[in-house]
Prior knowledge:
Distance between the termini: 49 Å
Number of helices: 16
Strand order of the largest sheet: 3-4-5-7-6
Helix content: 55-70%
Radius of gyration: 21 Å
Largest sheet: 5 strands, mixed
Number of strands: 7
Shape: globular
Structural class: alpha+beta
Number of domains: 2
Low-confidence stretches: none
Strand content: 5-15%
Amino acid sequence: MAPNREIRDLLPELIRLVRWNCRLASAGGAYHYSLCGLLLRLRQLYKWEHGLKPWQEPDPDAVLAWVAEQERVWDSLEDAPWQPLTWGGETLEPQDVDGVNRRLLPLGLAYGAGLSRGLQPTFFLGELAEARYQGELTILILGPELARDLDGTPALCQGSLIYARKEALAFYLWDRLADPGQQNNEFLKIALAGYGLRLKALLRNPGAHQPQFLELLAAELEAAIHHEIGEALEPSLRQALPAVLASYPQTRVEHWARGLKDALAEVNEWGRLAYLIETRNLSSLALMLAWRPGLYPLLMPELDPACRRVAASGDWQALEEARVQVLARLRRTAEGLTELMAAREAAAAPTTLKEIEQQYLAPLGL
Length: 366
């Protein structure tokens, strides 16, 4: 980011205000994670705050003391208000992403605010590495971040605006690679082989494998962007999903509906899988299978055997046929859910919930 008097004079106060809102978002969102998920995110946040690389392990005692301080701060923020942002004598609401970015993007900065897990607010501010414009979509790629909260989602779609966060993705990738349970993940082995990597060697000496890790990071950033493009452009759940989230929050139905949304974003015409098939990116394809969320095998069982065929014989056409088959089925499911939610004025009625569970969740064993 080039030096600029406006940035030098105004940025410190903006960072202070965004970080306040980040702390407030972390305080409200912490209890939506499992204990394991919370500890993982706290560890990432500690590394970011202290300028550590994803593979640098901090002193455990220092982390424990820092976590205790975070909890004390969070307790003190109960009922605290969001802070408006100031820039050049103007006052802007923290959710006014367009207004803030109109002022920051020309200066090489990017601001993000939206709703993440559990519809909890999330905020971040960073250096703008790249801006792309694809039809109606704006894609902002962030480099080093100046403020962030506990959430740290690597990619985020907010209407026609997509964020991709290099730092957050690097932390996510490394933590997944360092998970002891990954040692025998066959799809991960295929993914890493494409970069000339072996997992044990990478974990043992990260510094010696930086070019390969950065290549992996760049490829997964593109894959994540195309997932978000798929989500932004997918029309089939635009009516039903908000109704489900409002009617059945924190339920199995919400979990399933979010999984359906993500699966559609993976396999539609604009999403990750179509992009990987077009570019013949076996490594990113294997990584997608290696780290697929729990509902993916249930919602898209055709992908596993098709991906194995690609790995074994390079049969990308079989994968394309599986993608089209999955997409057609998932869109029929989305259409049925839309009709069901629209047909009942009281979408939260117990009979509606029971019908969704019987028609869609029970066949999946959920």
